[in-house]
Batch of 3 targets.
Target 1
Amino acid sequence: MDSRKIEQRKEQAKAWFETLRDRIVAAFEAVEAALPATAPLADRPAGRFVRTPWSRTDHSGNPGGGGVMAMMKGRVFEKVGVHVSTVFGEFAPEFRKDIPGAADDPRFFATGISLIAHLHNPHVPAVHMNTRYVVTTKSWFGGGADLTPLLERRRRQDDPDTLAFHAAMRAACDAHGEVAPYDKFKTWCDDYFFLKHRNEMRGIGGIFYDYLETDFDATFAFTQDVGRAFLGIYPDLVRKNFTTPWTEAERDEQLVRRGRYVEFNLLYDRGTIFGLRTGGNVDSILSSLPPVVKWP
């Protein structure tokens, strides 16, 4: 393919992830500002995002891009990160065999958005969303979104929040026909976000996909709709639940369940492994971990 066309696609993807980041940041700050005066923690100031740029070098010491961390601690969001990175360079020799197309040529480019939100209120589910575009001698999109209710009685497939989240992800898939088969991507998510050592799912699922490279325009359009679907559903779920009072027992249950996030991200998550092994920003990569956790 013409190198100019490839560069154009890289810029298109990067620009979209940055635009989506800005929209999500604005939506989450609006949620912080909208907390009613009678709600728990409403006496605290509304949170605002702090953006911190970072840069990296590749394994040979050459400049390798970077990104911007956007972090917020507020009265609704206990800890939320919405990060965009654009990195490039060469994969280290021991990593090349694990990445499609890198064994023949170690040069790569990757851009994407990664989001994780942990809320004060145990009745509000935690959420994760990540979409990315990777170029080696091949190119593909990957990512998805998944929901993690923290209270046992909310981790049901017939819970209203679960139904609404799955419906939003299904709609994003169904709009793109054979490019995005919902049942396949839902099953892929269930299988991926599974804690093998506990024989249980991390949450209630969502969608997950990777190595989607059939056609740039089609897969890019689908990836954009995944971001739009997330932006359309998750702030609504937060607003629906953020005034609900909670008990100390529910907070304790939330903190114990958060431990599953820590276990998954440190043991299994490919994004965490990819970021650490390619010299990414450690603070950004590990910002997915919840601020307070308990193991009984």
Target 2
Amino acid sequence: MKLKDKVALITGAASGIGKDIALLFAREGARVAIADLDGNAAQATAAQIRAGGGQAIGIAMDVTDEAAVSKGVAGMIDAFSGVDILISNAGIQIIHPLEEFSYAEWKKMLAIHLDGAFLTTRACLPHMYKAGRGSVIYMGSVHSKEASPLKAPYVTAKHGLIGLSKVVAKEGAAHGVRANVICPGFVRTPLVEKQIPEQARSLGIKAPIGRRASASIWWIRL
């Protein structure tokens, strides 16, 4: 019960890595707010946690919508009376050579990964500052440090999370708030499953066949 009585907001938590984090945090005693664009899926994940004896609520949240983020965080505060941990995990992937990316696709990718991180952080920090403690965790990627073909906006956004985290860490230090970026390598989640054939087609290679690997979770000091 490493996280007993801690309150965690996790975005993009109805599937993939976000869901595994939410389930793990609940097992460790955290009260978890499952935020996801798919409100029904968020509610289903929260119900799964409650069925196992944990505490959780589901929140429909478009992390690119300022009003939706503010409303979702307010709902979490009403339910759990605070927030100790923010995990900014919501993300998507679109794969093209750079010259084939539309401006709309570029803006959508940066909005979800970077604007979403900014909006959720801004909404949570006042509550963390008031409590004198908190941990902000951004789900980066190996692409926060490296680059791959076909992923220009994704790589740009994931690099940007490191810069945002550094600022949050410097500003939050005086208030007992830490910020970190987790940079996992390849994890075969539903999101990645979808992009394997897309990337294989773009690169002219045969897509690998095999069962899905389970997501790995790296603990960071909370």
Target 3
Amino acid sequence: MNYIYSDYVQKHNDILSLRDLAPGTVSNYISYLNEFLSWVAKELPGKDLSGLTFEEIRSYIRYLKDIRHLNNRTINVHIAQLRDFFLYVLHRDWDRYQVPYLRFDQYLPAVPTRQEVDAIINSISNLKHRAEIAVLYSSGLRVSELCRLRCGDITASKNCIYVSRSKNRSDRYAVLSSKALSLLNSYIRRDYCNASKDSWLFPGQKDGSHICTQTVYNILQKQLAVLGWQEKGYNCHSLRHSFGLHLYEAGVDLITIKEAMGHKSLSSTEIYLSLGIGNGRSVKSPYDM
């Protein structure tokens, strides 16, 4: 923490917590605020924060871009944090024309094929970890959603998983794969027979805790290394993209995929249009018609 401006940091933290933002968002915003305040202390010593000008804010943005070489997406998060700091802590108006968001390039993600996903899952010897990766892909879950599942969230009779408080702060049902259910049943019978409905589906090492997202990331990265696929650019979110793309390739419509993945906007689902074309999904050039 920057002790010169520690009162501002504490006030900002209190406001972010009061707004009930995700813990990760609060942590990132406070970290970015501390970076900004450290820059102010160095470049504008003794500066009263209430007197900050937009020209000075732009100088900081240029510092992030030209000196620290941050990508534009990350810089936009810094700008969003500064906007909130101005509005909620300094009680000053924010002019988006004075400090505009930066344009950024959008790249198509690396997405494993169905054969590659099967190879990854089948290469995992630990039954619990194999079940985790299988559910992650087969239900299209975010890693954070997978980690917070409880045993009672699994409804085998209806082939669905109850997902509470997803990224867009809403509940939903995700599809439950029969193959993933078989793995789950084997894992629970062998390693977790004393589990109750309220138990975490995938408990962590500490009593009463669930598995953490970093553990799931490590599991996948280890298997990618085993398969010699470190350079393919796959990560846990790639499995979620595989879920969406493979449904689209199978002919499922985008609205259904949107609901299955818990996207707030259809624009998030439309990426599978481009990915599908790249995989030859039912598109024929008019030159060949």
